[in-house]
């Protein structure tokens, strides 16, 4: 759920993301650095079950060398505009309690802390955004 992925994990995650589009009509999208046209991560929404509730979750993950440069915030802001235009009225998000950078991005985007839980055995901080 967190940290760097090895090649097999990245391939598996990529397959999951493609399946999300096929199943739900939404998912995570590539984040591309404009100057290099290099794929540097992903940002988007997908369906997620936490505490027996199905939520639409905003998530992002960037290659380490591209973190802390505003890319996650920029991509997520654009995505939130798109989701609002599609009629989405609430999104969830989560991260590990120690992931200060992601917490900062979510707070900057207007998400509010909504409690603590666990996901795939990982302790998480839950966030919600009313659009």
Ordered list of secondary-structure elements with their pairings:
Blueprint: H1 7-24, E1 28-32, E2 39-50, E3 53-62, H2 71-85, E4 90-95, H3 100-108, E5 112-119, E6 122-130
Antiparallel strand pairs: 1-2, 2-3, 4-6, 5-6
* Rg, nearest Å: 14 Å
Largest sheet, spatial ordering of strands: 1-2-3
Put simply, the count of helices is: 3
Please state roughly what percent of the residues sit in beta strands, choosing from under 5%, 5-15%, 15-25%, 25-35%, 35-45% or over 45%.
35-45%
Classification by helices and strands = alpha+beta
Percent helix, as a range, is 25-40%
**C-alpha geometry:** globular
User: Can you write the helix and strand succession as a string?
Assistant: HEEEHEHEE
Terminus-to-terminus distance: 26 Å
Report the count of strand segments. 6
Q: How would you sum up the major sheet? A: 3 strands, antiparallel
Average pLDDT over all residues: 92
Low-confidence stretches: none
